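# nightly structure sweep
# worker-07 picked up a monomer target from the shared queue
# config: single-sequence mode, recycle default, output format = structure tokens
# input follows
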Amino acid sequence: MILNLKHFVNNFIIYIMKITDWDNGEIVRVLVARNKISQKRLIEMLENYTKEEIPQSTFANRIFRNSMRLREMQQICEVLGYDLIIEPRKDS
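# output follows
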């Protein structure tokens, strides 16, 4: 697990996250904390984006069981303003 950090006015700002070894919970917790929102607020944002109801227990269970679908992660990134990028390793 690697975080590239940049120091900015006494705060650490994550600008690149290498998430290859992370599970769903770790990724979602970092994104929620970084955006200073609650998991409940994230669910509301996703519901507005997808126009589908998302029970909080279902969302929490998917995170806990590490069974979140790629599409769901893409939607989370979309509503929070992140790009999900896959690129070749530079150290090959």
